[in-house]
C-alpha cells in the first residue's frame, strides 16, 4: 500500500488505524475484526488500547506463534495468547481396545513436580509391563427442563417420550452428519420434566453437537405434548459442575485403566510396599473422601487431566467431571494391583481447541489427531491414554505419601 492510500479500500484498517478509531469512540473492541486488514491487526489494536487504558505492558501475550484467524472460533476479543510450559511424561506402554503403543503424555502446567511425579509413575508401570485401558461407556449428554401443569401432565409427557424415541432421534439427527442419539432418560420433579439425551458424538467432544440436536428434539416434544421448554440445559446433563449423576451414569467417556506391579518394582522403583500404598489409598482416598462427602475417591486425578486438557485443546472446565475418578489399590500375592476409573471424561480429537497449532501437535504426539477410522476410535484411544496417565499419577503420589517423600519432592522440584 502506498503512503496515503485508503486502508479501507485496500481491504481493511491496520492496527494503528483501528486503535485510533476505538480511542475516538467510533468502534468497540469487539467490532475490530470486521474492519481489520486481517485478524492479527485486530488483535494488535485491541492489545494497544487495553494496554493503554490499564497501563499494562502486554508484550508477552502479544508474542504468539500462530495466525490469529485460526482462533476466531475459539475466543472473542483476543489480545494475544498465554503460554504455559509444556512437559512430557513417558514413555508409558498402553494396551487398550483402540490403542497399543508407548505413549508420551503432553502436560501443560505451572505446577513444579507434577510432570516428574507422573513420569516416575510411568517408569514404574513400564517396568511392570505397562497399563491396560478400556472405554466402558460413551455418550455426551444434554438435559433440557420443561414446565408442565401438574404430575398428570408430567406422566403424559414422559409416556409420549418413551413411545416416540424414534421420532426424537429423527429430529435430533437431522441437525448433524455425525452424531447419533443413543437414548433419552426422563426425570420428573413436581411440575418439571427433565429429559437427559445421550449422544454418540464420534471423535468430537460433542457438547455443541448435542446442544443443537437436543434443541430440534425439544421442538418435537413441545409440538406433541403440553410441556413447555424452560431451558435447553436443565443442569441434569451435568456440564462443568460436580454431580453424582455423572459419577454414576457417566458423561463423555467412562474409561478404566489398571496394572499389576510386581513386588520388586514397588519396592525398588517406588521405595515403598504394596501394603503401605493400599493403606494410604484406603484411609486417604476412601475414608477421607467419604468424610469430606467428595464425589471423587482419588489422590489427584484432575491434576493429570487438567494438564493434558490444556496441552491438547480440550474444554478445561470439564476437568470438574473428570475429578469423579475412583482409584482402587489391592495387595496381591504377585505384587500390587492398582486401577483408576474415570466415569466422565469428556474429550475430543476434532473441533474446539484441537485445531490450534500447538494443541494439534500435542494430539499428533499422542497419535490421535483428527478423526479416527472408524469414527470415534481416535477419541477412544485418547481417553484410554489419559486414563493410563492418571494411573501413573495416582501410583506415584500414593507411593510418595506412603514413603513420606511428598514434601521433599515438592521442596526440590516445585517451590
Report on the architecture of this protein.
The protein is α+β, with helices and mostly antiparallel strands and 415 residues long. The protein has 3 domains: 57 residues, no CATH class; 214 residues, 3-hydroxy-3-methylglutaryl-coenzyme A Reductase, Chain A, domain 2, CATH 3.90.770.10; 88 residues, Hydroxymethylglutaryl-CoA reductase, class I/II, NAD/NADP-binding domain (Alpha-Beta Plaits). Strands 1, 2, 3, 4, 5, 6, 7, 8, 9 and 10 form a 10-stranded mixed sheet that branches. Strand 1 and strand 2 form a beta hairpin. The longest helix has 26 residues.
What attributes does this structure have?
3 domains; disordered N terminus; single chain; 10-stranded mixed β-sheet; Alpha-Beta Plaits; alpha+beta; 3-hydroxy-3-methylglutaryl-coenzyme A Reductase, Chain A, domain 2; 10 strands; 21% strand; 415 residues; globular
Task: Explain briefly what this protein structure is.
With 415 residues, this protein is α+β, with helices and mostly antiparallel strands.
Quick one: biggest sheet? 10 strands, mixed
Distance between the termini: 52 Å
Structural class: alpha+beta
Q: How many structural domains? A: 3
* Rg (CA only): 25 Å
Beta-strand content estimate: 15-25%
What is the CATH superfamily of the largest domain?
3-hydroxy-3-methylglutaryl-coenzyme A Reductase, Chain A, domain 2
Number of helices: 15
Q: Calculate the mean pLDDT score and round it.
A: 94
CATH topology of the largest domain: 3-hydroxy-3-methylglutaryl-coenzyme A Reductase, Chain A, domain 2
Amino acid at each position: 500500500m502506498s503512503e496515503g492510500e485508503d486502508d479501507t479500500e485496500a481491504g481493511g484498517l491496520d492496527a494503528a488505524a483501528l486503535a485510533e478509531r476505538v480511542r475516538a469512540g467510533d468502534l468497540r473492541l469487539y467490532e475490530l475484526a470486521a474492519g481489520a486488514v486481517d485478524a492479527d491487526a485486530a488483535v494488535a489494536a485491541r492489545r494497544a488500547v487495553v494496554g493503554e487504558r490499564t497501563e499494562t505492558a502486554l508484550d508477552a501475550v502479544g508474542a504468539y506463534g500462530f495466525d490469529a484467524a485460526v482462533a476466531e472460533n475459539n475466543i472473542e476479543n483476543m489480545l494475544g495468547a498465554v503460554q504455559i510450559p509444556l512437559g512430557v511424561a513417558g514413555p508409558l506402554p498402553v494396551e487398550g481396545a483402540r490403542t497399543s503403543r508407548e505413549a508420551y503424555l503432553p502436560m501443560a502446567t505451572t505446577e513444579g513436580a507434577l510432570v516428574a511425579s507422573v513420569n516416575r509413575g510411568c517408569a514404574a508401570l513400564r517396568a511392570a509391563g505397562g497399563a491396560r485401558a478400556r472405554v466402558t461407556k460413551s455418550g455426551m449428554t444434554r438435559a433440557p427442563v420443561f414446565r408442565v401443569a401438574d404430575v398428570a401432565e408430567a406422566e403424559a409427557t414422559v409416556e409420549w417420550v418413551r413411545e416416540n424415541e424414534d421420532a426424537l432421534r429423527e429430529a435430533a439427527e437431522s441437525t448433524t452428519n455425525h452424531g447419533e442419539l443413543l437414548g433419552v432418560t426422563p426425570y420428573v420433579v413436581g411440575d418439571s420434566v427433565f429429559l437427559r439425551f445421550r449422544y454418540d458424538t464420534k471423535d468430537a467432544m460433542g457438547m455443541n453437537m448435542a446442544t443443537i440436536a437436543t434443541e430440534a428434539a425439544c421442538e418435537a416434544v413441545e409440538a406433541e405434548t403440553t410441556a413447555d421448554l424452560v431451558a435447553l440445559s436443565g443442569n441434569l446433563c451435568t456440564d462443568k459442575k460436580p454431580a453424582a449423576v455423572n459419577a454414576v451414569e457417566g458423561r463423555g467417556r467412562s474409561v478404566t485403566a489398571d496394572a499389576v506391579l510386581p513386588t520388586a518394582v514397588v519396592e525398588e522403583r517406588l521405595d515403598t510396599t504394596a501394603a503401605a500404598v493400599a493403606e494410604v489409598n484406603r484411609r486417604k482416598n476412601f475414608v477421607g473422601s467419604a468424610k469430606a462427602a467428595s464425589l471423587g475417591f482419588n489422590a489427584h486425578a484432575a491434576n493429570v487431566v487438567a494438564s493434558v486438557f490444556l496441552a491438547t485443546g480440550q474444554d478445561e472446565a470439564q476437568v470438574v467431571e473428570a475429578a469423579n475418578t475412583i482409584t482402587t489399590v489391592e495387595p496381591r500375592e504377585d505384587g500390587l494391583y492398582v486401577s483408576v476409573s474415570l466415569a466422565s471424561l469428556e474429550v475430543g480429537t476434532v473441533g474446539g481447541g484441537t485445531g490450534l497449532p500447538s494443541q494439534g501437535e500435542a494430539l499428533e504426539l499422542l497419535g490421535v489427531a483428527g478423526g479416527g477410522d472408524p469414527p470415534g476410535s481416535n477419541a477412544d484411544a485418547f481417553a484410554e491414554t489419559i486414563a493410563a496417565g492418571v494411573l501413573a499419577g495416582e501410583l506415584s503420589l500414593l507411593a510418595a505419601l506412603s514413603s513420606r517423600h511428598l514434601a521433599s519432592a515438592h521442596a526440590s522440584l516445585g517451590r
